[in-house]
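Attaching the record inline, Q. Sequence:
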Amino acid sequence: MTLNCVIIDDEPLAADLLASYARKTPFLNLIGAYNNAVEAMKGIRENNVHLVFLDIQMPDLGGIELAKILPKDTKVVFTTAFSQYAIDSYKVNTLDYLLKPISYEEFVKAADKALEWFTKVNPSMKLFNKDRFIYVKSDYKMVQIKYDDIIYIEGVKDYVKIFTDNGEKPVMSLMNMKKFEENLPQPEFLRTHRSYIVHMTKVKLIDKFHIAFGKELIPISDTYKEDIQNYFDLHTLS
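Structure, as predicted:
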């Protein structure tokens, strides 16, 4: 699923930094970055905003006051240099309270909380769709990936590397492997190893404890061996 978000901070440099974080987070769609809460209200009203990264001390309308009048389904992550508002912040729709300077790691953890919350509240917001494609962020671009083109996915630290048979180079995207797996149709896609998810309809050859795609061998670990065996048992003539 994708969360629409806005950044509100009266410090332009702080707003620009958080906006850059949002742009490189695969499941966030940045609607806008604002230096004034009053101006931000228009963008929030005109779009289905799920998440607001919100400064507290701002002219005209402060963050706590704005949070009180946001739609009840819009969640807030406060981003501030002041710790004394933490208790007041949890009286509104806040999911997290981040103290400046904010690292990308802290930003992503807060965004993950929002993603988890919205997925639990509305499971239908997952990525499944009848068009059989998804968009992922890669190198600050949105890249369309068709389910039918995927051969396998490899987890590389904090990234997923998506291999396809459409002649294009693998796509790298900053994304949690587990969340990516949850949003793929199953059992069409199965985990074979903690670092690999395989498009099972693409499998032509199994060599002992590996799935072979040409010279590339995808391991099958003991953890997932039973699931893989059950899949092949259903599709094997005896």
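The longest strand covers residues 28-34. The radius of gyration is 21 Å.

More tomorrow.
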